Amino acid sequence: MPKVEPVTPEGASASPFGLFHAVNCDQIALRYRVTRDNFSVPKLLAFFNKETEEEADGFFVVLRTLDPEKLDYHMHFRWEFGKERVTLYVSFHIGVLRKREGEHEPYAEQFMPWFGTFFSNESAHADLHSQFEYSIEGRQSRFPLPLRMSIDDLGAEIDGISMSLASLPEGMASAKVQHWKKHLIVELRGSTRTTFATFDLQHEVNRLSSLALRLTETRSTK
């Protein structure tokens, strides 16, 4: 799996019918921190033809989907080896990739079941960060943004707000809403537990989207 840059190939759809485009999702990132006895480092090294952890240090891969018309995303996978723990980063990003010479399985939509074969358990805890981006022509923050303030002669303007979520909706502990010039950005942070064999990215995207929408509202046309 060669390292490649995300591009939009000819014939690939960037329409609102794609999984990520449909709900304005930019990315979903997962971080797994596991003890070495719960993850097979030797098996990972062997798959990527690396003989030592030092040789694999800094290595990462970018994977495309097999159906860019519907699965309008790609993913990144990288890792860090600690003395007692292994940290693994899996992130899904909007945008499709061209087919490249020499690529092979797993592709992005096959990744999680494959990834699970390296773990000693069928599921694992992960820290989660997701981001959604809406046009300010269609949605606005439920908190009045931007909020202009008079601080001496600074011309200050509050363009974002961070909040903790005590009820942990969808497992999310905090959120940030930012009002940019053309876009409204919603970030969600929390945790989840991944059952690798049955991981459903569409379910993840939709459940997080439902929370992001609750922090925003349709912009009034009046």
Characterization of the model:
The chain has 222 residues and is mainly beta. The protein has 4 helices and 12 strands; from the N terminus they run E-H-H-E-E-E-H-E-E-E-E-E-E-E-H-E. The strands form 3 sheets. It has an 8-stranded antiparallel beta sheet. A two-stranded antiparallel ribbon has the order 6-12. A two-stranded antiparallel sheet has the order 7-8. Strand 9 (160-164) and strand 10 form a beta hairpin. It starts with 24 loop residues before the first strand and ends with a strand. The relative contact order is 0.19. Residues 1-16 have low confidence and may be disordered.
Task: Describe the structure using short key phrases.
222 residues, mainly beta, 8-stranded antiparallel beta sheet, two-stranded antiparallel sheet, 14% helix
